[in-house]
Design goal:
The chain is α+β, with helices and mostly antiparallel strands. The chain has 2 domains: 1-54, no CATH class; 63-168, Double Stranded RNA Binding Domain (2-Layer Sandwich), CATH 3.30.160. Helix content is 18%, strand content 49%. The protein is built from 2 helices and 10 strands, in the order H-E-E-E-E-E-E-H-E-E-E-E. It has a 10-stranded antiparallel β-sheet with strand order 1-2-3-4-5-6-10-9-8-7, sandwiched between helices. The chain is globular. 24% of the residues are buried.
Length: 168
């Protein structure tokens, strides 16, 4: 039940954060059936969802310049890319995140960049495929419970990339 309410809270936060361009600040507090609470803060296109016990934190921002880009060393931002969305979360000792960026580079160049980085980190390739113009690549290191997933496709003359990662 707690996860369902957290998902609803995140959805609400995104809805509030993306409604308009006003520079307003919104705080919402959701109390779960077990008495725990989740606080949602939305300000200037940024959203933070945090449980009161601080075990779960979700951060998101959308829009060039509004984003504080923080990625682990094993998931760098592609050189010259413009990050549009950045989300990160931490819970139960693990961390994860997602970024979406646009670039002028070809999709295969971007996948090659992340393949090279994954290999240099000792990750094992777990997926490498192309379907309907979308390239997908995943790699992980089971011993450290660390991994990345990269999805790349052309979008309106640019290359859109979504990179997700997790680490323990």
């Amino acid at each position: 039940m707690r996860r369902i309410l957290a998902a609803i809270a995140v959805s609400t936060a995104f809805a509030l954060g993306g409604c308009d361009d006003r520079k307003e600040h919104s705080d919402i507090k959701v109390t779960n059936d077990d008495g725990t609470t989740v606080t949602i803060k939305s300000h200037d296109g940024k959203v933070v969802v945090q449980s009161d016990d601080r075990k779960t934190v979700f951060r998101s921002a959308t829009g060039e310049g509004a984003i504080e880009v923080k990625t682990p060393d094993f998931v760098p931002v592609y050189p010259g890319a413009k990050v549009q969305t950045m989300s990160s979360t931490s819970a139960d000792g693990g961390k994860g995140g997602m970024m979406i960026f646009y670039s002028d580079a070809a999709p295969k160049q971007i996948v090659a960049f992340y393949k090279k980085k994954a290999a240099s980190e000792g990750f094992k390739e777990t997926m490498n495929m192309e379907a309907s113009g979308t390239l997908m690549f995943s790699a992980s290191d089971e011993s450290s419970k660390t991994g990345m997933n990269v999805v790349v496709r052309e979008d309106g003359g640019k290359t859109m990339t979504q990179v997700m990662w997790s680490e323990k």
